[in-house]
Design goal:
The structure holds 2 protein chains of 2 kinds. Chain A is of the alpha+beta class. Chain A is built from 7 helices and 12 strands. Chain A is about 35% helix and about 25% strand. Chain B is built from 6 helices and 10 strands, in the order αββββααββββααββα. At the A-B interface, helix 1 and helix 2 of A face strand 3, helix 2 and helix 3 of B.
């Protein structure tokens, strides 16, 4: 394998794939590099944009020291449950994570590519990208996926990162064209996103503690699972619970399953008593 | 078209080798050394931002002596090679052996086919975990590749440094002993006291999860040696 296929001076792994290995890009054909990314193929030009709802609820909520990001575990194929234990929240690097709604295959691929992208940049440049730089890069990757959207393969992320310069956690949401919008408090996407947002709106306040933010996040997922068929709730019989991660100044950490379980056990007891 | 003068291939290669050696000899030395918890890399490098040691992948590091611009190109190509392989297959499929081979091919091809050879010498280092041993590969300016054990040296006074290390190197030494031996060797051949700020130190630490490469700042080197 020749190391210098030709002169290439860019720190982006994604752009490298688009130029040199288009077969490995998420759309599998490359051709829409950074300059022309997101061009819509002719056959889809007049097609109505497909609905972007996909069975999932993933959310992020800020607290005093950072952000909690969480997601349910259900994958669906039509009216069938395809997977009960799928992971929708991904660690991206030491200070950021993303959660995804959409077609499972391309979603997981985008998360892997984004992980490689950030690590690649850090190794080549000797310094990591800024929090905003990472969020923008993800926007470009979502944009490059636009042709796939017209084939029904939507990938929509929420991105959270800890901004060391500002000393705060940040939440970004995206639209299918790669538009990037920062949220100040919390956000949820997916088919149960609206229900989760409603639930969080009721309970959110500024300067939450980490435990309170986790409680609100898990309760919002519970509510979403209650209302939305595409979202899986806590499964006490099989012992499957939503997953959550905490992004803070000290880095990213998984919330242990036992902690999630105890939050849901308490919630179940309260709800049973209230009935 | 006039025919070029005949020069024997032997003469051409000899001239190229001499040229490359001269270029590398101008630079300072870099040492890679195994210690009990991984592999240590120490470079005599007065710059705090232009690195001679670089992370490549989870358990692989690279260092280069010689012309900085040429090393930098090779370094970037190596990281691209590693990241592409890890993305295509799996993280555990990225190995120092394959990277060292790719370097050897590239440097060797340039040496035999281009007018100007690359004036670089490189060390590709991999820390072994799960009971596997460490790997240290040295690639010289003509693309020849050497599988080294215990320690390896590249750069200007590499032979002199090697003589010092040969006398005093012990297997499974602590990080403190390894750092002080490297420092001693570098100071011995330059016959001057090196400020710790003028050292670039990094480790591939076996005990770390995920990416095992870590730079050791001068303040920490001072603590280690204390």
């Amino acid at each position: 394998m020749p190391l210098f296929s030709d002169e290439y001076h860019n720190s982006s792994f994604f752009d490298y794939l688009v130029q040199h290995r288009p077969d490995l890009t998420p759309s599998g054909r490359g051709g829409h590099g950074p300059a022309s990314s997101g061009t819509v193929p002719d056959e889809y030009r007049n097609a109505a944009a497909p609905p972007v709802t996909h069975g999932t609820t993933v959310l992020a909520i800020k607290y005093r020291g950072g952000v909690v990001i969480a997601g349910d575990r259900r994958a669906t194929e039509g009216f069938q449950i395809a997977d009960r234990r799928i992971e929708k929240v991904f660690k991206i690097d030491e200070h950021s994570a993303m959660a995804i709604a959409g077609a499972a295959g391309p979603c997981i691929e985008m998360a892997r590519l984004f992980q490689t992208e950030l690590e690649h940049y850090e190794k080549l440049e000797g310094v990591p990208l800024s929090c905003e730089g990472k969020a923008n890069k993800l926007g470009q990757m979502v944009k490059a996926n636009l042709p796939m959207v017209f084939q029904g393969l939507v990938v929509l992320p929420i991105y959270v990162g800890y901004d060391g310069k500002r000393d705060e956690g940040r939440i970004y949401k995206y639209d299918i064209t790669g538009g990037r919008y920062e949220e100040s408090d919390y956000h949820a996407i997916g088919s149960g996103g609206k229900d989760a947002r409603n639930s969080m709106r009721e309970h959110f306040r500024k300067d939450l503690s980490e435990q309170d933010a986790l409680n609100i996040a898990l309760r919002a997922l519970y509510t979403a699972a209650d209302e939305d068929v595409g979202t899986g709730g806590p499964d006490f019989v099989r012992g499957i619970y939503p997953t959550a991660k905490v992004v803070a100044a000290a880095g990213i950490a998984d919330v242990e399953e036992s902690r999630v379980q105890s939050v849901y056990a308490a919630l179940r007891d309260v709800r049973t008593k209230e009935r | 078209m006039p025919l070029p003068y005949y020069v024997s291939p032997e003469q051409v290669m000899q001239d190229k080798a001499e040229y490359a050696k001269k270029g590398i000899a101008k630079g300072r030395s870099i040492i890679a050394m195994e210690y009990q918890d991984g592999v240590l890399l120490v470079a005599d490098n007065p710059s705090a931002s232009l690195y001679k040691i670089s992370e490549v992948y989870d358990n692989i590091a690279l260092s280069g002596a010689g012309k900085y611009s040429e090393f930098e190109n090779l370094r970037k190509a190596g990281i691209r090679h590693a990241d592409l392989k890890g993305f295509m297959y799996s993280r555990e499929d990225v190995t120092a052996r394959s990277l060292a081979n790719a370097y050897s091919q590239t440097v060797g091809t340039v040496f035999s086919q281009e007018l100007k050879p690359l004036e670089v010498e490189m060390l590709v280092v991999q820390v072994g975990d799960n009971g596997r041993s460490n790997e240290i590969y040295r690639i010289s300016f003509d693309g020849s590749i050497f599988d080294e054990h215990g320690y390896a040296v590249i750069g200007g006074k590499s032979e002199a440094v090697q003589i010092v290390l040969k006398e005093r190197y012990k297997e499974m030494s602590s990080l403190k002993d390894a750092v002080s031996l490297c420092l001693h060797a570098l100071e011995h051949v330059t016959s001057q006291k090196l400020p710790l700020e003028g050292l670039e130190v990094a480790v591939l630490a076996r005990g770390r999860a995920g990416r095992k490469f870590r730079r050791v700042p001068a303040s920490e080197v001072r603590q280690i040696l204390a």
